[in-house]
Batch of 2 targets.
Target 1
Amino acid sequence: MTKTYRSVNVVIVFHPDGEKVLMCHRTKNPYLGLYNFVGGKKEANESDDEAAYRELFEETGISSQDIELTHLFTTDYHLDEISLFVYFGSLESEVELRSEKHPLHWIPIKGTDFADESKFAGQGNIKHMIEIIQESKQREGL
């Protein structure tokens, strides 16, 4: 029997200079006090892409006119009954960020240990996601 999982997304936003990634500093659980990517739950009657753009706009003020998102991967967390949709994109130019719930910060990519579980959510997944994107950009010469 196939279960219907709750769909959630995370959106990885790179600064126009390519040197920083946008993260929120969680002010509540899950991941209270840790940095994480922005994202949230998919609502009924919206596509996965629509949910990612909506959550990005609600949490940061970044609109679909500011960034083009690419679907990186989807993974199912069977124990939690969650399907996680991961998107990423680079801003074309700087935008004025608007924080919804959690303070937003540009975190430098170089020199940051994204696997440090005392600072970052995701049990090392954040580091893995950033590395996948960077390797892909290098292969494509971006």
Target 2
Amino acid sequence: MIDTTRSAEEEAAVAAAADGELRLHDPAVRASADGVRLFDPEFVEVGASGRRWTYEEMVAALPTLHGGADGPPIETSRLRGALLAPDLVHLTYETVIAGRRARRSSLWRKGDGDTGWRLYYHQATPVPEA
């Protein structure tokens, strides 16, 4: 029989990454320096549109993207996570933004020192309407 319980280390790491992911869905965080600090300097995203985003592009556009103060909210469900290595968490979840569904996958990497967990990679895949 396989033990499927998580260690305290895994629980804490997944919780920290999930907290960061959900904070990035908050319009106030997206428009602040706190939001910028949640991105790893080597961040890359492949958005639901297929566009590739770099750290610099994302930081510049973050306050104006979906979930921002003037846009539709990000509805999140089915958030799950797994610790892949001591410094790497994989999250998966679904979102609905302005009626459009997407499945999402994020990698969060723990930095050295006080940097904490940062979003290293994100990909969104649109879900066709049923």
